[in-house]
Write a structure and sequence with these properties.
Length: about 230
């Protein structure tokens, strides 16, 4: 849309490729959230809700390897969606500004998006291991990433507390690699939001991805069928 609509209405593109790429990728966090919820929401809970685990778990394959395989499949599915999004964006940037423009920040943004995708899948996978209904884990994961955690981060910022430990705050790094400003106007004044640190963001997203996955696997392996 950011490519076709300006062409259709004869509107000029931004002067800088970074501005175009950042605008185009402004929805990638939402895309990651939706994809993660769809791919990981029923990864564990679906086995217990539909009781397919009664057929799968007694097989010679260990339960842990089954859950790891389902996690990897959810991550790869989300990565594929994100990769297509970035491929289209890269082709547009190459056509408008040239192949060498904004290539380095685009690659850096892609790597951050893939890491963020992994942390998102781990979070939703964690909810899937706790709850027995797929719709519960899917919706809780979706709204946690879309509303609950961002609201908590915004409230903490408002009271001068750096929400560095909230993964959605670190997701802003995906577009901040294009070096665009973070300030907004509110009630006649300027509210400065905390800018995530690059290396701290990587550490936080990695911690979410690894720790939540380990906890989810432990919970899933101890989960029993009831009713």
């Amino acid at each position: 849309l950011f490519y076709v609509v300006p062409l259709a209405f004869d509107v000029s593109f931004p002067d800088l490729p970074e501005s175009f790429a950042s605008r185009n990728l402004g929805f990638v966090v939402l895309l990651i959230t939706i994809s993660g919820a769809l791919f990981a929401g029923d990864a564990v809970s679906g086995e217990f809700e539909s009781r397919t685990g009664l057929l799968v778990f007694p097989t010679p394959q260990r339960r842990n390897s089954i859950f790891v395989g389902k996690y990897v499949a959810a991550v790869l599915g989300t990565w594929m969606v994100v990769g297509i999004y970035y491929l289209v964006t890269s082709l547009e940037v190459a056509h408008i500004y040239g192949l060498d423009r904004a290539s380095e920040p685009l690659v850096r943004s892609l790597l951050l998006a893939l890491l963020y995708s992994t942390s998102v899948v781990s979070l939703i996978y964690f909810f899937s291991s706790i709850f027995r209904r797929s719709i519960t884990s899917t919706l809780l994961g979706f709204f946690s990433l879309l509303m609950i955690l961002p609201i908590v981060g915004g409230v903490l910022s408002f009271v001068d507390v750096d929400p560095w430990f909230i993964v959605t705050t670190q997701g802003d790094l995906i577009t901040r690699v294009f070096n665009l400003g973070p300030s907004v106007r509110l009630a006649g004044g300027s509210v400065e939001y905390y800018t995530p640190d690059f290396y701290q963001g990587i550490a936080v997203m990695t911690a979410y991805a690894v720790v939540l996955l380990v906890i989810a696997l432990v919970v899933a392996n101890r989960k029993e069928f009831v009713g």
